[in-house]
Design goal:
The complex is a heterodimer of chains A (109) and B (115). Helix content of chain A is 0%, strand content 51%. With 109 residues, chain A is mainly β. In chain A, a hairpin with a 2-residue loop joins strand 7 and strand 8. The radius of gyration of chain A is 13 Å and the shape is globular. The chains are: A mainly beta (109), B mainly beta (115).
Chain lengths: 109, 115
């Protein structure tokens, strides 16, 4: 069974920068896994942020960026705002099946 | 405005069945690949399955825990996506979301499997 692993939790100060990563149990994450990043706040539906590694939706704030680094997918939040406090999930495509990451709880403190 | 609205959730006994619906509007539903995603209480997101557009074959794929029990279908004439859930287990208890290739999400519908 494929497992996609993320940091359980990260804390960042307002205005700071934080990077979340997404690792696959099958090996290095490449663009062929079409990494997506999804944000979810308590009591709300998920909201898409990034698709195909680094592509932003029209509603994605400029401070969010996606990349590949060290064999993982990464989501960087630069100039963090209090409203960025949320759970973040990566999503990888395995040729017919999709697997969500374990999720990262980002706290802005 | 692109919108997805799920319905059909509720309380069902173990071994029972339920059909969820997802009404789509604001985009060309017939061209869209659609997925169902669920979230158990206090847990993370879990991909359930996906159906391609009919022009791309209309085929389906499912996550291992639901394969053989759940069936995804679509009615393009009604702009509606369905999830037929049979042989339900307690561990199927979750909020079920429909999504257009993870770009747009509905608000979800709660399915509770309990005796």
């Amino acid at each position: 069974q494929t497992v996609v692993t993320q940091e359980p939790s990260l804390t960042v100060s307002p205005g700071g920068t934080v990077t979340l990563t997404c690792a696959s149990s099958t090996g290095a994450v490449t663009s062929g896994y079409y990494p997506n990043w999804i944000q979810q706040k308590p009591g709300q539906a998920p909201r898409a942020l990034i698709y195909s590694t680094s592509q932003k939706h029209s509603w994605t704030p400029a401070r969010f960026s996606g990349s590949l680094t060290g064999g993982k997918a990464a989501l960087t939040l630069s100039g963090v705002q209090p409203e960025d406090e949320a759970e973040y999930y990566c999503l990888l495509y395995y040729g017919g099946a999709h697997v969500f990451g374990t999720g990262t709880k980002v706290t802005v403190l | 405005e692109v919108q997805l609205v799920e319905s059909g959730g509720g309380l069902v006994k173990p071994g029972g069945s339920l059909r969820l619906s997802c009404a789509a509007s604001g985009f060309t539903f017939s061209n869209a690949w659609m997925s169902w995603v669920r979230q158990a209480p206090g847990k993370g997101l879990e991909w359930v399955g996906r159906i391609k557009s009919k022009t791309d074959g209309g085929t389906t794929d499912y996550a291992a825990p639901v394969k053989g029990r759940f069936t995804i279908s679509r009615d393009d004439s009604k702009n509606t996506l369905y999830l037929q859930m049979n042989s339900l287990k307690i561990e199927d208890t979750a909020v079920y979301y429909c999504t257009t290739t993870f770009n747009t999400w509905g608000q979800g519908t709660l399915v509770t499997v309990s005796s």
